[in-house]
Every structure is written in C-alpha cells, then in structure tokens.
TrEMBL record:
<dbReference type="InterPro" id="IPR058792">
    <property type="entry name" value="Beta-barrel_RND_2"/>
</dbReference>
<feature type="region of interest" description="Disordered">
    <location>
        <begin position="1"/>
        <end position="21"/>
    </location>
</feature>
<feature type="domain" description="Multidrug resistance protein MdtA-like barrel-sandwich hybrid">
    <location>
        <begin position="200"/>
        <end position="332"/>
    </location>
</feature>
<comment type="similarity">
    <text>Belongs to the membrane fusion protein (MFP) (TC 8.A.1) family.</text>
</comment>
<feature type="region of interest" description="Disordered">
    <location>
        <begin position="501"/>
        <end position="523"/>
    </location>
</feature>
<dbReference type="InterPro" id="IPR006143">
    <property type="entry name" value="RND_pump_MFP"/>
</dbReference>
<dbReference type="Pfam" id="PF25917">
    <property type="entry name" value="BSH_RND"/>
</dbReference>
<dbReference type="InterPro" id="IPR058625">
    <property type="entry name" value="MdtA-like_BSH"/>
</dbReference>
<dbReference type="GO" id="GO:0015562">
    <property type="term" value="F:efflux transmembrane transporter activity"/>
</dbReference>
<protein>
    <submittedName>
        <fullName>Cation/multidrug efflux system, mebrane-fusion component (Modular protein) (RND family)</fullName>
    </submittedName>
</protein>
<dbReference type="GO" id="GO:1990281">
    <property type="term" value="C:efflux pump complex"/>
</dbReference>
<feature type="domain" description="CusB-like beta-barrel">
    <location>
        <begin position="345"/>
        <end position="416"/>
    </location>
</feature>
<dbReference type="Pfam" id="PF25954">
    <property type="entry name" value="Beta-barrel_RND_2"/>
</dbReference>
Length: 523
C-alpha cells in the first residue's frame, strides 16, 4: 500500500539524515581549515593583485557552500495506472504531519484515485517562497560584499606598498679620461700575388702532356705542358721545302744575271735583256726571303707547342687536362709570381678618406703574429664592392719572405697619431633613441658622499670606432662618470647604485695587441 511504501522511504531518509548530521562537523572543520590556508596565502602574496583576486574568488566559492546537509526528499512515482491504484486501494493511511519538505516539481495524475494521492502530497507544507528567497539571497549578498571589501583592501595595500618601495638598480660605471696616444685600425685580408698570369698555348692543338701540378714552384722558362707536335712538324717541313726551292731559284737567277752582265759588257745583248735578267733575280731573291720568314714562323709554331713559365712563381690552378683540344690563347695553367706579394683588404666607406694618407702601415700573419712586416698602400679602388659594400684596397709587401705563402690570412694595421683631448667610450655605453646617440651620465647623491645616485641621458656626437671603443667628439667631458652596462633598462632620473668602484677609462688599444707592444715593435 501507499502508506507502507512511504514508511520505508521515510526510514531511509532518516538514516541518511543521521549520517549527514555526523559528517556535518567534519565538513565544517574542513571548510574552516581551507579558509585559514587561503587567507594565509593571500597575505603572503599581496604583491600580486591578480593572484589575490583569484584566491579571494576561490574563498568566496568555498564560503557559499551549503551550510546544512541536504534534506532527503520524498520521491513519489510519477506514472500510475488505474489498475495499479485499484490493487493498492485500502484503508487510508494515517495522516502525515506537515513537514518542511521541498518538492523539486509538482506531480499531476488523472482520475479520482490519483486525486486522493495528489491531495495527500499537496498537504505537505513547503517552505514559503519569501523565506526561501531571503535565505538563498543572504549567502550570495554576504559573499559579494566580502569580495568587494577584500579587493578594495588588497588594491589599496598594493598601491601603498608600490609607492613606498622604489627599486634601486645596480649599474656598472666608468670615469672618462682623455684617450691620447695612438689609434690602431685593423683589417683582416688575404695574401695575394701582385701578378697572377693565366698561361695558354699560342697555337691550337691537343694537349699531350702536363708537366706540373698545383702548388709547384717553377722557374722562368721551365716547361709546364706540351701539345701534340705532329701537325706542327709537318707544317714546318713544308715551309722548309718552300725555302729550299726559293733558294734554288734565287741561285739560278743569280748565275744567269752574272752571265748576262758579262755578255752585255761585250755588247752581245741589249740593255733591255740585261734589265729583264736583273728583275728575274730580284724576284727570286724576294721569294727566298718570304720562304725564309715562313720557315721561321713555322719553326716558332713548333716551339710554341711547349708551354713555359714567363717568370718565377708558383702554380695556383690548372684549367685543362691531358687529351683536351685547346685553341690559341685559351687559359691552361695559372702561375702567380712570387717576386712581390700584397694583402687584399676592404675599407669601410666612413674610413677611406681618413686612412688614405696614413703611411705607417704594418702587416702581421695569423701563423706568426709576432713578426711585423712593413707595408705600403698601393691602390684604393674608386668604386665599392657590390657584395661587401667596402672599397677594395691592396697593400703591397716589399721583399716578402719565402714563407709568406699565397692565401695566408693577414692583419693590416693602420697606426694614426691620436688626439690628446679625444674621449673614447665602450660601445655598450651607447643608447640609440629616436635616431640620436645618447649616453647615461651618473650624478652621485649628496655631492658624492652617498652610496647611490641618479642617471640622465646626454646626447653625444660620435667619431671613429676602434675595436670595442668609439670616439666621442662632443657631448661628454673628462671626469664625468657614465653607465657602461644595462643602458636599455634605465629611465631619466632613476636612482641607481654602483656595482663596483668607479673605474677610469683606458686609452684606446689595438684589439690584436696592446699599443705598448705595438710601439715597441715599430720602434
């Protein structure tokens, strides 16, 4: 019956209610512990506004949880047929005292039997809507008020803390002094020969032999390669035969002329015949000279079948191999003359005019950096290289040593007497702002008696660079203190503290070797 089923469900609900009542203190203690931990974290992390707001929101969510265990609702079957209700019809159940149950949704049935059940269910006294609304709104209003109050307190606390604490940035300082001395400008280059020839045969033909390899040292007149001499020999033989025939004709014409001259002297022939014989001799003599020249030419052509070196040097490249047919003048072997060598470098466009008139030039190789060779600027190109955008420059090495090989890496140093009033600063001290160069100048507090100071930017005009240093033409004075590290992290008027004792600026030096050592070498 309906009453029996309701009693069983009521017992289950009572058991669940008792279990939840036992768990309620434990849940309350857990929520209290959670609130304590979150409040502690919020106090420790008040410097972060975002974290504080997030944690406060989590605290609000936990505080809005249910204060009482969920009441057990009586579940009523939703679907009943007339037959099932007729079977269950019996004596009416005892009246159920009104309880404060809350139904999730109304239940509707059709028929007189269902109407009785519906009346019994509706007899349950639900909570008034007004009280439910007030009870549900109270935690939400309290939570929102607590969220607004905590956010305002945290923002106010963070603002006061940010205003009261100012970060003093550590900086590295440098005191400016006149540079003076000499300035060295170094440029890396490659050792090259003054003259490098591309040798080729003066006649065409098939290469029969190659007598040298790349890197071989050759002397003037030494054979380098040879052509097949067969065709050239035949041509020379034909020229010699023509020479012999012309010589015979000349000798015959000479004997005839001698005989006719004797007859003309005795009056046996006319003068016209004598002149004709003289012309025949002259023609034969001219043909002999022509045949002789042709023979010399063919002899030279035969000699050109052997390629020889024009001067002392070293073989740098071979462009053809044995068996290849070449034409007259085609490059076959490259020979670099070793009588004079030079170093090829590239000068930047902003230093060409300055370095053009410098006569103190030295050359050092990477293999022997302690050996200094004198140099002389031979030529500076009038047009910049299309790839490197530098001006090709050749620095010759008079009387180069034998171990100065072609292809070595060398360093050319231009030494210029420096200005005694020039100031040079590290490149790390420069700051580019809106197209202008600036330097942070340090001003100590309390006239230099304090432990810190402030920095302000000063515009400067730059000169020539020397390694990691650059010349300052205007804007700074000797004795001033500048910042050399972290210039992109400063702002005007910012308080800073020195990381170390202020170091004086050092004179400009050669990146490869100190100027003192360079002066000793040049002296």
């Amino acid at each position: 019956m309906w009453g029996g089923g309701g009693g069983a469900k009521g017992a289950d609900c009572s058991t669940g209610r008792s279990r939840r009542r036992l768990q309620a203190p434990a849940d309350a203690r857990l929520r209290t512990f959670r609130r304590t931990i979150l409040l502690f974290v919020i106090r420790r992390l008040t410097h972060s506004r975002v974290i504080s707001i997030l944690l406060t929101g989590q605290l609000l969510i936990s505080s809005l949880g249910p204060r009482h265990p969920r009441r057990c609702l009586k579940v009523i079957p939703k679907t009943h047929s007339r037959e099932s209700l007729a079977v269950r019809r019996g004596p009416p159940a005892a009246p159920v005292p009104p309880t404060r149950y809350r139904l999730s949704m109304p239940v509707h049935y059709a028929g007189p039997e269902v109407a009785a059940v519906d009346a019994e269910v509706r007899s349950l006294a639900p909570l008034p809507e007004r009280r439910r609304g007030r009870r549900a709104a109270r935690p939400i209003a309290a939570g929102l008020a607590m969220l607004a109050l905590s956010t305002a307190l945290m923002l106010a606390g963070c603002g006061k803390q940010a205003e009261s604490v100012e970060y003093v940035r550590p900086v590295r300082l440098l005191q400016l002094n006149p540079a003076g001395g000499k300035t060295a400008f170094e440029f890396s280059g490659e050792v090259r020969p003054r003259v490098e020839s591309r040798l080729g045969f003066r006649v065409g033909g098939k290469i029969a032999a190659r007598l040298v390899d790349v890197g071989a040292t050759v002397r003037k007149g030494q054979p380098l390669a040879r052509l097949d001499p067969t065709d050239l020999g035949l041509a020379e033989a034909g020229a010699r035969a023509q020479y012999d025939a012309a010589k015979t004709d000349r000798d015959l014409a000479a004997s005839d002329l001698k005989r006719y001259n004797e007859l003309a002297a005795k009056g046996f022939i006319s003068a016209a015949e004598q002149h004709r014989r003289q012309a025949t001799y002259d023609s034969a003599a001219s043909k002999l000279e022509q045949a002789q020249a042709n023979l010399r030419n063919q002899a030279n052509q035969t000699g050109y079948a052997v390629l020889t070196a024009d001067a002392d040097g070293v073989v740098t490249a071979i462009d053809t191999e044995v068996g290849q047919v070449v034409t007259p003048g085609q490059p076959v072997i490259r020979v670099a003359q070793t009588a004079e060598k030079e170093v090829a470098i590239g000068l930047p466009e902003d230093q060409v005019d300055m370095l053009r008139g410098i006569t103190e030039v030295t050359i050092r190789t990477w293999s022997e950096p302690d050996r200094v060779l004198p140099g002389r600027v031979r030529e500076i190109s009038a047009a910049a290289d299309t790839v490197t955008r530098t001006y090709p420059t050749r620095v010759s090495v008079p009387n180069p040593p034998a171990d100065l090989r072609i292809g070595m890496t060398a360093v050319v140093t231009f030494v210029r007497s420096g200005d005694s009033a020039a100031i040079r600063i590290p490149l790390t001290a420069l700051l580019q702002n809106n197209g202008s160069n600036q330097v942070w100048v340090y001003q100590p507090d309390s006239g230099g008696k304090g432990t810190g100071g402030t920095v302000n930017p000063v515009p400067v005009m730059l000169g020539n660079a020397d390694g990691n240093l650059i010349e300052v033409r205007s804007g700074l004075k000797p004795g001033q203190v500048i910042v050399t590290a972290g210039v992109h992290l400063l702002r005007p008027g910012q308080k800073v503290r020195p990381m170390q004792s202020i170091a004086p600026a050092q004179p400009a030096s050669n990146p490869g070797a100190p100027l003192a050592a360079l002066d000793r070498r040049l002296g």
